[in-house]
Structures are given as structure tokens and as C-alpha cells.
Design goal:
Pfam families: MFS_1. By secondary structure, the protein is mainly α. It contains 18 helices and no strands. Helices cover about 75% and strands about 0% of the residues. Helix 4 runs antiparallel to helix 5, helix 4 packs antiparallel against helix 8 and helix 15 runs antiparallel to helix 18.
Length: about 475
């Protein structure tokens, strides 16, 4: 891969510099993305330890994950526009700096609210950082095979970060404490900050425009309200005011967001982007896929520890097949896209993921790693890796250079909003199945037993496989047949 000279639409406030080596740009961008995605999953293995240490209930424990995911998702569009307006390097450094500082605060938290607040601040930093990583690649590598390979590596590193989170979290929780799943970001983040400051060249493509802060607040508030409403259905049911008010309020806020974007002079999300078929189709698929794919990390971590009684480090090691398979799929995808269309490859990967998730739904209280986890892990992770690279390539194709940051933010927004809302849905249906199974078996005592827990987690995987199947159907209908 070789970098190309930034386009003439890029303006830099700094003096011109020699184009940095392609490997250095790729390394810095992928390192930033790795940290962002790692923190989506790294806390999963540590959740039982966090609950014991800070005294969190099940709903509060879910918000340790969702505070990061929702803030990340809600502000990604704003983060992408920040990169366009104020510079990709500057956005990268500011986002990583905030992310690192929030990691330190979370690792030192003494109260549940402090941890949740720190996770939200991490999400805000990640929302500025992540679009900058993809924008740096799409504006550095020329369109075609070079860019596809760079995006494939970026996808593999991001997917590997999500998969490696289980192993990293397990090692740190078992040998140190749960706090180190956050504190480890501090030295790593500082090292990446130094590398980015040296290697990256400043550039921006949309000078003279302003930020649409109201749009960012509206979309974040709308998604958060929807997620909160779904969580409330677990306790109050779908028809209760405690559920309906936030659900309807969230939909109303998202409606206002669309109306504002249609009228403002400098919208956070120019609605004209959705006239590009690859952009709207790939993002719609990512939104739906995200709703099912979070189950792999969240519920597998709980199943391994709460049902199979794995230690945190054993649970982390059990995620190695997921890590290796998803990285393999992501690295194979660019090669396969030279032979098959991106649509065909994405659908093939999606079908494999559906099979893997459905297979994993057969988990039970008497399961083993070799008999219950290993096979489904390889199939669903390989399928996910094959699927995400062509989707990311399609989602960033066809947009103007001045919209590169925004489109990169939209890619991650679709995936994260889908994941955050999907996690709340899957957590709710799992809890309902756990409660029904426990009641039916006459259980009681200190909490649900392994049989009920396995039934609930398995049901979540069943629903997740259905969600991804719907995404495959959407691919067949909406994605164009063009080869990459």
C-alpha cells in the first residue's frame, strides 16, 4: 500500500510536510480504532467483578456497557464533522486525549455513578476519535485496491479489538483487578498520542462551516430515550407509562432531528447523502446487524462465567477462537472482493453468522467449551469478518472528500446505535426467559440458577440470529451488485 498526496480540497493550518509513510498512517489509525472497539467489549468479562465490588444491580450493570455505547453512537456524527471542520489529526488527538483521561477516571471510580459517568465520557472521546481513524485512511489511500486493503486492515483490527476485549479483560481482572481493564488505556493511549503527533499530517476539507450541536444533542437524546424505554419494559411491560413515555419521547426526538437536519444551513447529517444508494443501503444493513452482533460478546461472557463457572482469565482465553476467526475473515475479505462482488461476499458472511448464532443458541447448563462454544464461535466470527469489510467499503464509497469525516461517522453510528438498541432488546428478552424458566422450575434462593440463565442467554442468541437474518434479506434487496 502506498499513500497519496492529500487532495487539493484539503487545507492545513500547518506548513506543508512530506507525505508520511503509508505504514505509519495505517498503524496510527488502526491503533486508535483498536482502543475504541476494545472498550466496547473489554468490560464484559469484568462485569461480575464490577457488580460485586460496586454493588450494582443487573440494570445498572447493563449501563456500564450502554453508557459508553450510547454516548459513542450518539455523538459519532458530530465527531465526524469535527474531523472535517477542524482537522483529522486534531480530532484524532483531542478524541484520544479525552478517551484516555476518562479511562483513568473510570479506573479510579469508587461509586457506581462515577463509573457510568466515566464510561459516558469515554464514549464521547471515542466518538471524536473513531471517525477520524477511518477518514484518515479514506483520504490517504487512493480509491481501489489500496483503499480496500487499508479498510480491510482497519476492519480486522477493530473486529480483533472487540474479540480481544474478552482475553484482555480476563487477564487484567484475574491477575490485577477489574479497574485495570480501564487503566490499561492510559499508557497505551499516551503512546499512541505521541505516535500520532509525529506521523499524522493535518488536513481538513470543509472549512467555513459550523458544527450542528443541536442535531447531535437531539439524536443522542432520542437514542438514549429509546434504549431506556426498552429497558423499562423488563420491569413494567410494554404498555405501561414508564415504558411508553421514553419510547414515544425518543421517537419524537428523532423525528425532530430529521426535521432540523432538513432545514438547517449546515446540518450534522445532510439528508442528500442518502440519495447515494451504497451509503444508505450499507448503513441500513450495519444498523440491523449491530442489533444482533453485540450478543456474541455480552451474553457469551455471562454464559462462560455464570453458567460454566469459568474464571475471568479462562473466559478471556475462551474468546480466542472468536478473535482469530473474525480477524481471518476481515483479512480474507479484500482478496475475495477482487473475485466476487461485495454484495455476494457480505451476504455469504451474513448467512454464516446466522448459522453460528443459531448454533450458539443451543447452549445449556451442562455445556462445555469444546462441545458448546468452539464450533459456533468459529462460524459466527468468520461470517462477521467476511461481512463487515465489504459493508464498510460500500458505506464510504461515492461520497465527496468534503464529507469523508461525516460518512465515516455515519458508518460507526449505524453500527453502534444498532448495537446499543439491540443490547437493550436482547437483555430484556433474556431476562424474561430467565424469569419464566426459573418460575417454571420452581427455582428461588439467591438468584437464577444455571438452567434458567442458560435458557435466557440461548434465547438472546436465537433472537440475534433472526435479526442478522433480516440484515441478509436487506442486503439482497438494497445493496447494488457492483464489484469493488
Amino acid at each position: 500500500m502506498s499513500a497519496h498526496t492529500p487532495s487539493t480540497t484539503d487545507n492545513s493550518s500547518a506548513a506543508p510536510r512530506a507525505t508520511p509513510p503509508a505504514w505509519a498512517v495505517l498503524l496510527a489509525a488502526c491503533a486508535g480504532q483498536f482502543l475504541v472497539v476494545l472498550d466496547v467489549s473489554v468490560v464484559n468479562v469484568a462485569l461480575p467483578s464490577i457488580r460485586t465490588d460496586l454493588g450494582l444491580g443487573e440494570t445498572a450493570l447493563q449501563w456500564v456497557v450502554n453508557a459508553y455505547a450510547l454516548t459513542f453512537a450518539g455523538f459519532l456524527l458530530l465527531g465526524g464533522r469535527v474531523a472535517d471542520l477542524f482537522g483529522r489529526k486534531r480530532a484524532f488527538l483531542v478524541g484520544l486525549g479525552l478517551f484516555t483521561a476518562a479511562s483513568l477516571a473510570g479506573g479510579l471510580a469508587r461509586e457506581p455513578w462515577q463509573l457510568v459517568a466515566a464510561r459516558a465520557a469515554q464514549g464521547l472521546g471515542a466518538a471524536v476519535l473513531s471517525p477520524a481513524t477511518l477518514t484518515i485512511l479514506t483520504t490517504t489511500f487512493p480509491g481501489g485496491a489500496a483503499r480496500t486493503r487499508a479498510i480491510g486492515t482497519w476492519t480486522a483490527v477493530g473486529a480483533g479489538g472487540g474479540a480481544a476485549g474478552g482475553l484482555v479483560g480476563g487477564l487484567l481482572t484475574d491477575y490485577l483487578s477489574w479497574r485495570w481493564v480501564l487503566l490499561v488505556n492510559v499508557p497505551v493511549g499516551a503512546l499512541v498520542l505521541v505516535g500520532a503527533a509525529v506521523w499524522l499530517v493535518e488536513g481538513r476539507a470543509a472549512a467555513g462551516r459550523r458544527l450542528d450541536v443541536p442535531g447531535a444533542v437531539l439524536v443522542t437524546a432520542g437514542v438514549s430515550a429509546l434504549a431506556y424505554g426498552i429497558v423499562q419494559t423488563e420491569r413494567h411491560g410494554w404498555a405501561a407509562a414508564a415504558s411508553l413515555v421514553p419510547l414515544l419521547g425518543g421517537l419524537a426526538l428523532l423525528g425532530v432531528f430529521v426535521a432540523v437536519e432538513a432545514r438547517t444551513r449546515a446540518p450534522l447529517m445532510p439528508l442528500g447523502l442518502f440519495r447515494i444508494r451504497t451509503v444508505w443501503a450499507a448503513n441500513a444493513v450495519m444498523l440491523v446487524c449491530g442489533g444482533g452482533m453485540f450478543a456474541m460478546w455480552y451474553f457469551m461472557s455471562l454464559y462462560l462465567q455464570n453458567v460454566l463457572h469459568f474464571s475471568p482469565i479462562e473466559a478471556g482465553l475462551a474468546f480466542l477462537p472468536h478473535t482469530l476467526s473474525i480477524v481471518l475473515g476481515s483479512k480474507l475479505a479484500p482478496r475475495l472482493m477482487a473475485v466476487f462482488s461485495g454484495k455476494a461476499l457480505a451476504m455469504t458472511g451474513g448467512i454464516l453468522a446466522v448459522i453460528g448464532y443459531a448454533w450458539q443458541s443451543r447452549m445449556d447448563a451442562d455445556g462445555t467449551f469444546a462441545g458448546t462454544v468452539l464450533g459456533p464461535a468459529i462460524v459466527m466470527s468468520l461470517g462477521s469478518g467476511l461481512m463487515m469489510t465489504p459493508l464498510a467499503t460500500a458505506a464510504t464509497a461515492g461520497a465527496a472528500p468534503s464529507e469523508a469525516g461525516l460518512v465515516a461517522g455515519l458508518v460507526n453510528t449505524s453500527r453502534q446505535i444498532g448495537g446499543a438498541l439491540g443490547l437493550t432488546v436482547l437483555t430484556t428478552v433474556a431476562a424474561e426467559r430467565i424469569s419464566a424458566t426459573e418460575d417454571g422450575s420452581g427455582g428461588g434462593g439467591d438468584g437464577p440458577g444455571p438452567v434458567a440463565l442458560a435458557a435466557g442467554y440461548g434465547h438472546a442468541f436465537t433472537v440475534a440470529s433472526g435479526i442478522i437474518a433480516a440484515a441478509v434479506v436487506l442486503m439482497a434487496v438494497a445493496l447494488p451488485r457492483r464489484r469493488a
